[in-house]
Write a structure and sequence with these properties.
The complex is a heterodimer of chains A (88) and B (528).
Chain A lengths: L2 H13 L21 H12 L11 H4 L2 H15 L8
Chain B lengths: L4 H11 L4 E5 L2 E4 H18 L6 E5 L4 H12 L3 E4 L6 H11 L3 E5 L3 H4 L7 E6 L9 H5 L15 E7 L7 E6 H15 L6 E4 L6 H13 L2 E4 L5 H10 L4 E4 L1 H7 L18 E4 L6 H10 L4 E6 L8 E3 L13 E2 L3 E6 L12 E7 L5 E2 L3 H7 E4 L2 E15 L5 E5 L5 E3 L2 E3 L1 H8 L5 E11 L3 E10 L7 H11 L8 E4 L14 H11 L4 H6 L5
Parallel strand pairs in B: 1-10, 3-4, 3-5, 5-6, 9-10, 11-12, 12-13, 25-26
Antiparallel strand pairs in B: 1-2, 7-8, 8-18, 13-14, 14-15, 16-17, 17-20, 19-20, 20-21, 22-23, 24-25
Helix pairs in contact in B: 1-2, 1-8, 2-3, 7-8
Classes of the chains: A mainly alpha (88), B alpha/beta (528).
Chain lengths: 88, 528
């Protein structure tokens, strides 16, 4: 499974959302995630991808869409293997 | 003389036209702009056919447009009926039908949620796309000439707010313009709201506490920052960046703000501008209080209490929160709180009685429900010709006059010949350093009448070892108050309408966990 599939599956299974799920869709604005489920979402991302999100990374903009999450996960991965840089 | 919040806006728009009134993400409006938007919205509503006295539903996300619509409905001489988005459909239908609203303003995004039950109700878009079949206020405002035709007096109806009680359908509470204006002035007095305040509103505008933040802002010329709380770090960043001075919250919001599963950025920000945090809608536990004090050392903490029928009854002087942490304080200005026994006599200190509220914030009663109104809004021989709110809530007053919430009228636990207050059990349970919140209730046990049961949530979301928790409680509570059943919840369900703990749902779930239906539990003993 690709990262995108992993993330999409989680959203569909956990929220029951059946509509279109484009990577750029704002999951909070469209009320697919709320203030309770976004915490679960953050926990899932950390566990599933084996990354630890710092306080400054645990913000709406990083977690509000599938594409933003993928960018975050990729930057964490490349940082952890020693190339690339942290996201600003 | 101003006996309406609309007049507050007119005055402030004249006094401080260019000051920013509302900020919502990248958008903002000055007082002059907000005033013009509200007048333009009123004129649009008039064109659409909204008549004076009409109830107008507002089912919208928290945006600048929502604020314009709320104020616009008032300026149109109509009555605001807030509907929380995502409320369960039968409840939306109930509010639409019970209020007899002529129109319903909603976001283009949520048309599907509200269409279907609204046969006789005109739908209006208050925010969002313009290419729909319905009138669109933001679009119409571009072409309309704002016009001032507000002519209500203080006695006229301003809002019907639906509040879910412990039983039955939500009831509409009828609020006058004078109620809103008086409530605004009273709260502004004890919180010291002023022109330099920057209020962060994480509350929704679907109940009186949230709406009061708008009134505080337009009354005193403060600035209101709208924020939808999702991840706490975004809120912390906003508080620091905008030098927020006032943060009104509720216990459920405090719990979300300090979610221990997430790394929090509280240490990296300067919150020294924060003047106060105020909270209402439930008990503040030791864990919550500690989190607030540690994070916001400069802020005073106001613990407040009230019911929508009388808006607000008490607040605790922030200087007393350490010495009287479980107190709901004393009566708010211009109101009196009585503690009455069954004969209507004032209870002596520390004797539990019913909280009865008299004064400026007593609302007009329940919308189209004279029977329930007659039960709750009653006169008292000591105050001829005056309506008081008989809250049904049990409270006591100590020798110094500080009030303590004991229980909702129907929630006292009768066990082993004692009458136990769920609130007193909960207050002790939440003193445990690992416990975030607790809900105590009765489980029928033929031998002792009822057993005390207590549902709880923890900082770690993991259950505590039952034996050690019971031992702990035994050293802190008299024997008859120690819960026979302790039920761990990962988190507590919240009521849709006001964001309070959904005690009914918590009990229901706990009964299921104890292996019995509530009905059978109420009529027989439970063995677990």
């Amino acid at each position: 499974m690709t990262d995108l599939e992993i993330l999409s599956n989680y959203i569909r299974n956990e929220t029951g959302y059946e509509g279109e799920l484009s990577p750029e869709l704002d999951l909070l604005e469209k009320q697919i995630l709320d203030s309770f489920s976004i915490v679960q979402w953050a926990m899932f991302i950390q566990e599933r991808f084996g990354i630890e999100l710092e306080a400054e990374e645990l913000v709406r903009d990083n977690l509000s869409s599938l594409s933003n999450v993928m960018a975050l996960v990729n930057s964490k991965r490349s940082a952890s293997v020693g190339h690339g840089q942290n996201r600003p | 003389m101003s006996s309406s919040v609309t007049r507050f806006l007119c005055e402030t728009a004249e006094r401080l036209p260019d000051k920013v009134a509302i900020v919502c993400r990248t958008r903002s409006a000055t007082f002059a702009q907000l005033h013009q938007e509200a007048l333009a919205t009123a004129e649009c509503l008039h064109e659409i056919g909204v008549e004076p006295g009409d109830r107008v539903g507002i089912c919208m996300e928290k945006t600048l447009d929502q604020v314009s619509v709320i104020l616009g409905v008032l300026f149109a001489n109509a009555v605001v009926v807030p509907i929380l988005p995502r409320l369960k459909q039968p409840n939306i239908q109930h509010i639409i039908e019970n209020s007899g609203m002529s129109s319903l303003v909603t976001d283009s995004d949520r048309m599907n949620e509200v269409t279907g039950f609204a046969d006789r109700t005109k739908l209006i878009i208050g925010h969002g796309e313009i290419d729909t079949d319905w009138p669109n206020l933001p679009y119409m405002r571009r072409f309309i000439r704002p016009r001032m035709f507000f002519d209500r007096i203080g006695n006229d109806n301003a809002a019907v707010i639906y509040s879910s009680g412990s039983t039955g359908r939500p009831k509409g509470i009828l609020i006058s313009h004078r109620n809103l204006a008086d409530g605004t002035n009273i709260v502004a007095e004890y919180l010291g709201t002023n022109e330099n305040d920057r209020i962060c509103c994480v509350l929704s505008f679907n109940f009186d506490y949230g709406l009061n933040q708008i009134w505080q802002t337009i009354r005193k010329g403060a600035t209101l920052y709208l924020h939808n709380l999702a991840l706490p770090n975004d809120l912390f960043s906003l508080l620091a960046a905008q030098k927020i001075t006032a943060l009104p919250v509720m216990p459920v919001i405090i719990t979300k703000m300090f979610d221990k599963r997430l790394k929090l950025a509280t240490a990296s920000y300067d919150f020294s501008s924060l003047r106060y945090v105020c909270t209402t809608g439930g008990r503040v536990s030791d864990v919550m209080l500690r989190d607030l004090k540690t994070t916001f050392p400069s802020a005073k903490i106001y613990s407040m209490f009230g019911l929508t029928e009388a808006f607000r009854s008490t607040y605790l002087d922030p200087a007393k929160i350490d010495s009287h942490p479980t107190s709901i304080g004393k009566a708010i200005p211009d109101c009196q709180v009585l503690v009455l026994d069954e004969n209507g006599e004032e209870c002596p200190p520390n004797v539990v009685g019913e909280l009865v509220h008299r004064g400026a914030t007593v609302t007009k009663g329940y919308w189209r429900d004279p029977e329930t109104t007659a039960k709750v809004f009653r006169s008292h021989p000591r105050f001829p010709g005056e309506m008081l709110v008989f809250s049904g809530d049990k409270v006591r007053r100590d020798e110094e006059g500080y009030l303590y919430f004991v229980a909702r009228g129907d929630e006292m636990i009768k066990t082993k010949g004692f009458r136990v207050s769920p609130t007193e059990v909960e207050a002790e349970v939440v003193r445990h350093p690992e416990i975030v919140d607790a809900v105590a209730f009765a489980v029928t046990n033929i031998e002792v009448g009822e057993d005390v049961a207590c549902a709880y949530t923890t900082v770690t979301r993991q259950p505590l070892a039952e034996h050690t928790l019971k031992q702990y409680l035994k050293t802190h509570l008299p024997n008859h108050m120690v819960p026979a059943y302790l039920i761990h919840f990962e988190s507590f369900p919240i009521t849709g309408n006001a964001g309070k703990l959904d005690r009914k749902a918590i009990k229901q779930a706990a009964f299921e966990r104890l292996g019995a239906e509530p009905q059978s539990v109420e009529s027989s003993s439970v063995q677990v």
